[in-house]
Amino acid sequence: MGRRMSEAFDAFMELYSGLPREGPGTVDSLLNVLEIADVPPLGRVLDAACGSGADTETLTRALPNAEIIGVDKQQAFITAAKARGLNADFQVGDMLWVDGEFDLIWCAGAVYFFGIETALEAWRSHLRPNGKVAFSEVVWRGQPTPKAEAFWLDAYPQMATQNALTARIEACGFKVLSAEPLGRAGWEGYYAALCKNIARLQGQSAVMDNVIAETQAEIDLFKSDFGCYDYVVYLAEPL
Ligand SMILES: C[S@@+](CC[C@H](N)C(=O)[O-])C[C@H]1O[C@@H](n2cnc3c(N)ncnc32)[C@H](O)[C@@H]1O
To answer: pTM of the prediction?
Structure first.
C-alpha cells in the first residue's frame, strides 16, 4: 500500500472505530432470520465479516449453547469484538476461507465485496445438513431517483434490484426462504453513531476530511432519497 493509501485507510479505520456496528442492521432483523432458520440449540454458527461483533452478540444471546464464531479481516475490529466478553470465538481471517461446517452462516453488509455468486459457492461446502446462509445486501427496491442512481453507480455499480438478486441466488442453486427489507431504523441507528465520530474527527487532517466527505455523501443521500434502495436480509438454503 502506498503512503497516501495507507493514510486514507488509517483515517477510515479511525472514523469507523468505537461504533456499535460497522454497517446498517438491527437486532430484530437477525432474530427474525433465526426464527425461520431453525438452528439447533447446540449448533455451530459463523458471523462472517463480523466487524466489532454487534450481530455476534445477538447470536450469543439468542443461542447461548451454540458454538459461535466471528471472523473479520481487520484485527482492530476483532480486538473490539473480543472486548465485548462474549461466549464466542473471534478470529482474524477471510470470510470465504472458513474452517469446518455450520448450521448457519450469517454475513451482514459484506457480501458485496465478492458478489453473491462467489460467496455462495465458497459457503455451500461449509453447510451442515439443513444448514442455511443468511446475509444482508443493499438492493434497489423501487425506481432509482437520479441522485441515488448517480451515487450507487459510483459506490456499487453491481447493485441489483431485489428481484434480480433473488433470481441470482436461485441460479446458484439456493432456495430463498425469506427476504425482508431492513427498513429506515437499521440505517438511522448506524448513521447516528457514525455522525458522532464525524463531528469529533472533522478538521483533524485533509486525509480525514476526504474520508468523511465520502461517508457524508452517503448519509446525505439517505436523508434525501432513502426508499428506492435498502438492505434486504436474505435467508437461503441449498436446493
Ligand atoms: C460493512 S462492515 C459490516 C460489519 C458487521 N458485519 C456489521 O454489520 O456491523 C464490513 C466488514 O467486512 C469486513 N471484511 C471485508 N472483507 C473481508 C474479508 N475478505 N474477510 C473477512 N472480513 C472482511 C470488514 O473488515 C468489515 O468489518
So the answer is: 0.97
